[in-house]
Amino acid sequence: MLTSREQERYDRQIMIGEIGREGQEKLKRSRVVIAGTGGLGSPIAIYLVAAGIGMIRIIDHDQVVLSNLNRQILHWEEDIGEKKVDSARTKLRKLNSAVEIEAIPETITESNVSTLMDGCEVIVDAMDNLPTRYILNQCAIEKNIPFFHGAVTGFEGRAMTILPGRTACLRCMYRGPVPQEKFPVVGVAPAVIGVIQATEVIKYLLGIGKLLTNRLLIYDGLKISFNEFKVERNPDCDHCGTLMRKD
Amino acid sequence: MAVKVHIHATHRQYTNGLEVVPVEGNTVGQCLSNLVNQFPGMEKALFAKKDKLLNVVEIYINHTTAHPNELSRSVNDGDDIHLLVMLAGG
């Protein structure tokens, strides 16, 4: 049930036919993991907290440094040296005190990922490296939790939504390891992609709209253009191929 | 077959800034060989070694993934090949 204060707070989105009071109650009951509280994680968390998701677990092992501040808008000058999850939780609670924020200052590894994702309906990829994305992708497949991928470099970004066992996963296009390098980025790129990921999460939780499944969305900020590419499940995928073979 | 190859922004330094390069070939591999003949700098941008694409390179034919075995995929007159680069940042 929504309180009268919640009905007032979310009035403008309850007015949307696809959401309504019932949809708002669904959002309130939802539990979401955001893996990373950097350039992508900041806008994702801000908009999901503003939308009234019931519980959000934010996971990040890093501390805030000066060079984060061009894009990681949950972190400010006064937060330098603080754990990112603590800095993020402080802002998110000020934005919407009704949302439960679980702040976990841990590195996501193959050995702890399953526990870290426990009890959540959605995993949002806000990582800054591919190896951890693949750890999350595999965990999402194994636990049958939808996975919302996003990544950026420079002015460019991409997003795709993965429904385990039903749509192409992040690993379906894997060809081999990629060297980890410091990546260039301007803050508006993760802002655009993060908001797309948050939109996908809201749509999924409400069961509305057309998800970005089997479609890789590419955003070119220099042209302000979006391109879609069709992707397909790979029966030889080492993450989801087994599920496909069981179909 | 006359095919258009769409060059990723980070690779245009090797194609004199061209975003789209017309090439000839019956397969993706032949088209990329033609591209490299026109712009030799593209070889190191796309290939780890002969006939082995870099792991970061993604290839789409007419906006559909060509993975796996991209280089042996056949193409038709008027097809579009997009060369994308996997992104890792966040």
Short structural description:
Chain A is of the alpha/beta class and 247 residues long. Chain A has helices spanning 4-9, 11-14, 20-29, 41-51, 84-95, 113-117, 130-143, 188-206, 241-246, and strands at residues 31-35, 55-59, 100-104, 122-125, 147-153, 156-162, 215-220, 225-230. An eight-stranded mixed β-sheet of chain A has the order 3-2-1-4-5-6-7-8, with helices on both faces.
Structural topology:
The complex is a heterodimer of chains A (247) and B (90).
Chain A (H helix, E strand, L loop, with lengths): L3 H6 L1 H4 L5 H10 L1 E5 L5 H11 L3 E5 L24 H12 L4 E5 L8 H5 L4 E4 L4 H14 L3 E7 L2 E7 L25 H19 L8 E6 L4 E6 L10 H6 L1
Parallel strand pairs in A: 1-2, 1-4, 2-3, 4-5
Antiparallel strand pairs in A: 5-6, 6-7, 7-8
Chain B lengths: L1 E5 L13 E5 L3 H11 L3 H5 E3 L2 E2 L3 E5 L2 E2 L14 E6 L5
Parallel strand pairs in B: 1-7
Antiparallel strand pairs in B: 1-2, 3-4, 5-6, 5-7
CATH fold title of chain B: Ubiquitin-like (UB roll)
How would you describe the shape of chain B?
globular
Strand order of the largest sheet of chain A: 3-2-1-4-5-6-7-8
Radius of gyration of chain B: 12 Å
Description:
The complex is a heterodimer of chains A (247) and B (90). In chain A, strands 3-2-1-4-5-6-7-8 form an 8-stranded mixed beta sheet, with helices on both faces. In chain A, 35% of the residues lie in helices and 18% in strands. Chain A has helices at residues 4-9, 11-14, 20-29, 41-51, 84-95, 113-117, 130-143, 188-206, 241-246, and strands at 31-35, 55-59, 100-104, 122-125, 147-153, 156-162, 215-220, 225-230. Chain A has one domain: Rossmann fold (3-Layer(aba) Sandwich), CATH 3.40.50. With 247 residues, chain A is of the alpha/beta class. Chain B is an alpha+beta fold and 90 residues long. Chain B has one domain (2-85): Roll (Ubiquitin-like (UB roll)). Helices cover 18% and strands 31% of the residues of chain B. In chain B, the strands form 2 sheets. In chain B, strands 2-1-7-5-6 form a 5-stranded mixed beta sheet, with helices on one face. In chain B, strand 3 and strand 4 form a beta hairpin. Chains A and B meet through strand 5, strand 6, strand 7 and strand 8 of A and strand 6 and strand 7 of B.
